[in-house]
């Protein structure tokens, strides 16, 4: 088992932004990036040399089984407390981890295949989350696998076996939402109201994202993407006229309103999701380039067959 505080040592000890998760021997087993000398995230890469990649199905009309991996089968109890914290693993709690992992998934393939399942959809991100993050929808990095589930070799072996059985695997892609490391100036102990001119962002603690950073220099004009209202039609001038400038940030800094109901869709497409998920500006080309690059590396390292885009209606396309 990877020893105490590997997440905390990797993230919490960082006091300044690092340009991506560079190769580190301690975390190499879990890192999709295998380029030892690369420093720029867009130079990171990893792939399976000599691997015969499986073609994704042209027709997805077959039985697909959804699995929340932590709540499935615990095949390797040694990784249950990968961070060795007191708020991490407890099978009697509905708030902490239960221990499901890749070994448990591999051990269950006979059961799944016997039911006629041909596709497996894993709900939640496979990347590193906060120690208690059982649902896995708040990743802290988009290249480092969560040690609670298994290392890169285990993922590759499991997916190879899925393909050998003529089955397929779909992973969740959180796209623009990450963890909960960012707060807003003057609102750290309360909800931050939505503001089209944004708020200045602050880090809640010494933890940092290693590929993305906040910014508090204001640009008077910004190239905003398309937005839609509740009818499914683009918003009108009464909305677009409010969206002019923005901060030079990798993140949307408009507030942290509720995720569902109460607020217009276009505001919920910009605000911090449900007050607990930091939202990347995936509509900003440099941010989008990093997301796209990390996504390609997921395919190259894992040979997965498809993605389910989380909060797809809140991922904004660029204007054509």
Describe the protein.
There is one protein chain. The chain has about 325 residues and is an alpha/beta fold. It is about 20% helix and about 10% strand. It contains seven helices and eight strands; from the N terminus they run αβααβαββββαβααβ. The strands form three sheets. The protein has a four-stranded parallel β-sheet, covered by helices on one side. Strands 4-5 form a two-stranded antiparallel ribbon. The longest helix has 18 residues, at about 285-300. The N and C termini lie far apart (about 50 Å). Residues about 1-20 have low confidence and may be disordered.
Topology:
Layout: H1 6-12, E1 64-68, H2 102-107, H3 109-114, E2 119-123, H4 152-164, E3 168-173, E4 182-184, E5 201-203, E6 218-219, H5 237-240, E7 246-247, H6 265-268, H7 285-302, E8 306-309
Parallel strand pairs: 1-2, 2-3, 3-8
Antiparallel strand pairs: 4-5, 6-7
Silhouette: globular
Low-confidence stretches: 1-20
Just give the CATH class of the largest domain. Answer: Alpha Beta
CATH architecture level-2 label of the largest domain: Alpha-Beta Barrel
Distance between the termini: 49 Å
The computed structural class is alpha/beta
CATH-defined topology of the largest domain: TIM Barrel
Strand content: 5-15%
What is the CATH superfamily classification of the largest domain?
Answer: Glycosidases
The overall strand count is 8
């Amino acid at each position: 088992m990877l020893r105490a505080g590997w997440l905390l040592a990797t993230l919490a000890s960082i006091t300044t932004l690092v340009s991506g998760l560079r190769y580190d021997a301690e975390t190499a087993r879990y890192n999709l990036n295998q380029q030892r000398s690369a420093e720029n995230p867009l130079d990171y890469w990893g792939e399976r040399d000599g691997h015969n990649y499986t073609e994704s199905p042209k027709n997805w009309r077959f039985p697909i089984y959804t699995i929340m991996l932590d709540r499935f089968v615990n095949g390797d109890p040694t990784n249950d407390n990968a961070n060795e914290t007191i708020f991490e693993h407890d099978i009697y709690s509905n708030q902490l981890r239960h221990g499901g992992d890749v070994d448990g998934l591999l051990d269950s393939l006979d059961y799944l295949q016997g039911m006629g399942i041909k596709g497996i959809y894993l709900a939640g991100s496979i990347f590193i989350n906060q120690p208690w993050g059982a649902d896995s929808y708040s990743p802290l990095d988009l290249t480092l696998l969560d040690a609670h589930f298994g290392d890169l070799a285990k993922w590759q072996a499991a997916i190879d076996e899925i393909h050998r059985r003529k089955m397929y695997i779909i992973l969740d892609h959180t796209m623009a939402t990450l963890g909960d490391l960012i707060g807003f100036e003057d609102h750290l102990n309360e909800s931050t109201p939505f503001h089209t001119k944004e708020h200045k962002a602050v880090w809640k603690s010494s933890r940092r994202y290693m590929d993305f950073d906040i910014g508090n220099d204001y640009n008077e004009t910004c190239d905003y993407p398309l937005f839609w209202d509740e009818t499914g039609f683009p918003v009108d001038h009464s909305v677009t006229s409010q969206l002019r400038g923005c901060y030079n940030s990798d993140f949307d800094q408009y507030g942290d309103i509720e995720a569902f109901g109460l607020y217009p869709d276009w505001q919920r497409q910009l605000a911090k999701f449900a007050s607990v998920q930091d939202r990347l500006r995936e509509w900003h080309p440099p941010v989008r380039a990093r997301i796209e690059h990390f996504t390609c590396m997921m395919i190259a390292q894992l040979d997965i067959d498809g993605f389910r885009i989380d909060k797809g209606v809140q991922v904004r396309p660029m204007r054509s």
